[in-house]
Write a structure and sequence with these properties.
Oligomer: single chain
Number of strands: 11
Strand order of the largest sheet: 2-7-10
Helix content: 25-40%
Number of helices: 6
Largest sheet: 3 strands, mixed
Structural class: alpha+beta
């Protein structure tokens, strides 16, 4: 049995963590270590890997950090695919919920996803109190702390973000109204699968379906769910 504790609270964001010896491991590194150890079992294994800081970044309206954490989760999935065999390993990638985040229209082709929208000819901008065109962020949130970062209460309008470092790790996106922490969303989330029984991950299901599917695929509830035919 192995227990790894690498911080006093949450792990650091991937772009902030200390990568030197003695620093925190990445999600990918922990994935590789976990699989290396669990592959020693003769009876197979079930491993859950969570990119939990994606959620934390969205709650803080920090879109760049959420995307960076999503890339690290992708790297962990790639590692899992490399270290396992397709014929005997079911891998499912999904989320437990979405967030109140959206991509606003109409950024220019090739515009950075973390950039802003401002096209005078097409009318894609917002007019400030002096009837001047101002941009809006491509990624925005329905609610969260970003409102206070961008709304100037003295003039009753949004601050001009054009001169801000919107590619910074610390940049906070715009939100429609203020909350200390942005809320989860209510939309359906995607589920992707590869390996044995992956054909059962299709259509629309309640989230509890995946737990039953994993139990079936791993033959953990033989009496109630039976087992896949080999």
């Amino acid at each position: 049995k192995v227990l790894g504790l690498f911080g006093q609270s949450h792990m650091e964001y991937e772009v902030d963590r200390d990568t030197e010896q003695g620093g925190q491991p990445s999600l990918t590194e922990m994935t590789r270590q976990a699989i290396n150890r669990m592959k020693r079992s003769d009876n197979g294994f079930i491993l859950m890997i969570e990119g939990g800081r994606i959620d934390h970044a969205h709650h803080a309206n920090r879109a760049k950090m959420a995307l960076e954490e999503t890339i690290e989760l992708e790297n962990a999935v790639k590692a899992a695919l490399e270290m396992t065999e397709r014929e005997d390993t079911l891998i499912i990638v999904t989320a437990d919920h979405g967030h109140a985040v959206t991509m606003s229209g109409y950024p220019e082709r090739g515009n950075p996803i973390l950039g802003f929208v401002k096209n005078i000819e097409r009318g894609n901008f917002v007019n400030n109190t002096e009837n001047q065109a101002q941009p809006y962020t491509t990624i925005g949130y329905a609610n969260g702390p970003g409102f206070d970062f961008h709304f100037d209460k003295n003039i009753g309008f949004w601050k001009d973000i054009e001169a801000e470092d919107y590619m910074s790790n610390d940049f906070v996106q715009m939100s429609t109204f203020y909350l200390d922490s942005e809320t989860h969303g209510g939309e359906d989330v995607s589920a992707y699968a590869i390996g044995p029984q992956a054909h059962l991950v299709t259509g629309v299901h309640e989230q509890s379906y995946l737990a039953h599917l994993v139990a079936y695929a791993a033959c953990l509830r033989k009496n109630t769910l039976t087992c896949p035919k080999v």
